[in-house]
Specification:
By secondary structure, the protein is mainly beta. The protein has a domain at 211-410. The chain is 14% helix and 43% strand. It has five helices and 24 strands. An eight-stranded antiparallel β-barrel has the order 11-12-15-16-18-17-14-13. The longest helix has 30 residues, at 388-417. The radius of gyration is 29 Å and the shape is elongated. Mean pLDDT is 89; it is low at 1-9 and 403-418.
Length: 418
């Protein structure tokens, strides 16, 4: 008999064979679990080959103190295949998350070991218990690609102590334990030493950044249209890139400040509880960009340079100040505020050099136009628009007034000579 499958929830996870091998010893006198290193507990997803885990170590007083033995820490050896794991994880995501990550591909077949010591008491809340456990290890992503960004050979080390999670190699001394830079679009990605305070609710992300010696997260990364839209447009909130259909150039970005950023929806809110503060700057060399916003100037794309663009994120809003130096002598500046929760301008202003539309200005008033025309952007970050007609009208009006005044002054000067 054939027919349509019955309606119901879709299968999110499928694994034909999950294998668990070996057991463990229990000391009923001390309520200890002892897993011998020569006979680790192992769990593997055998049909997909996505993951295999082996666990050894001793945990004393399991019901209450959960104290890991000093001489026998818990070790978790993980053998993973990220490409196969992603096929398992992706269906578990929400529809919106799946849509956002529709083009994501990831690879990495590695074996890594994580070591756990300390204790995790059952009678304490998470924020107190997490401060009593220590975890160290790292995992590696061979390659990851999404939204125009391709990263290769990315190490992500983790060291947890005192409730603070840091991206450092746990077996290296301070000053030499930062993550190795990865390759990113033919440039470099250096995530640096990040810290997450797991004791707070929500958890808080920080970096010890020095404005005098800023940390370069990205250096000479090749731009493309997809990355321009997703990173410069969506994350850094530069309206010139939000609907980019063409983008080339070399992007470098550095951190001046990153403190107490809440890892929750609170980061989008203008709330006293949102203490997060971020400031980054970036430059783009050899930029070639085409977008709906810039097309109003009559060219499908423009050549430009961006130097020291400044982006601040605080209290649920982004403050953006970027100048595109077009053709070496036409500074087009976007400066203003974007509300993160709504992506609305509050406001965002364009400072336009009349040289970008001088062909539309009557010849007899060109010499009298101002150095820049100030025009507020309309729409929002998803669809920013620029009323060039208003800019031209303002320019001609101001230039015409100056031309008339100049003509009158010249006429009066001529009368005075007679």
């Amino acid at each position: 008999m054939q027919g349509q499958p019955a309606p119901g929830p879709q299968l999110a996870f499928s694994e034909d064979k999950i294998a668990i091998h070996n057991g463990f010893d229990v000391d009923l006198g001390t309520y200890s679990i002892i897993i011998d290193r020569s006979h680790p507990i192992s769990l593997s997803l055998e049909s997909t080959g996505a993951l295999a885990v082996q666990v050894t170590g001793t945990v004393n007083d399991l019901p209450l103190r959960r104290q890991i033995a000093d001489g026998d820490p818990v070790q978790i050896r993980v053998d993973y295949d990220l490409a196969k794991l992603w096929k398992i994880v992706k269906p578990m995501l929400s529809p919106s998350q799946q849509q956002q990550l529709a083009d994501l591909t990831v690879t990495g077949h590695q074996q890594r070991t994580f070591t756990i010591s300390g204790s995790y008491p059952a009678d304490k809340p998470f924020n107190e218990a997490v401060a009593m456990i220590n975890v160290g290890g790292y995992f590696t992503v061979d390659s990851l690609s999404t939204q125009g960004i391709t990263v290769q050979n990315l190490d992500f080390p983790l060291s947890l102590s005192g409730g603070i999670l840091r991206t450092v190699y746990p077996d290296q001394p301070d000053g030499q334990n930062a993550p190795k830079p990865a390759s990113c679009n033919d440039g470099t990605l250096d995530i640096g030493v990040l810290t997450v305070d797991l004791r707070s609710d929500p958890m808080l992300l920080s970096m010890d950044a020095d404005p005098n010696q800023p940390h370069y997260i990205l250096r000479d990364v090749s731009l493309n249209a997809a990355m321009a839209k997703s990173f410069l447009g969506k994350i850094l909130n530069n309206p010139a890139f939000s609907n980019a259909n063409e983008s080339r150039g070399l992007l470098s970005l550095w951190v001046l400040k990153l403190q107490k950023v809440p890892l929750s929806g609170l980061v989008l809110q203008a709330s006293p509880q949102n203490q997060g503060s971020v400031e980054v700057q970036y430059s783009v060399r050899q930029l070639q960009i085409g977008s709906e916003l810039l097309a109003v100037f009559g060219n499908s794309s423009v050549s430009a340079e961006i130097n020291d663009a400044d982006v601040k994120i605080q209290n649920g809003q982004v403050t953006e100040d970027t100048t595109l130096m077009i053709d070496d002598d036409k500074p087009l500046r976007f400066a203003g505020v974007v509300i993160l929760a709504t992506e609305q301008f509050a406001p965002m202003t364009a400072y336009i050099p009349p040289a970008l539309f001088d062909k539309l200005i009557p010849a007899n008033v060109r010499q009298y136009v101002p150095d820049q025309v100030i025009v507020p952007l309309k729409g929002d970050m998803n669809h920013p628009t620029l009323d060039l007609g208003q800019a031209i009208a303002q320019t001609i009006q101001k230039g015409a007034k100056k031309a008339v005044i100049n003509g009158l002054l010249q006429g009066l000067g001529g009368l005075g000579r007679h």
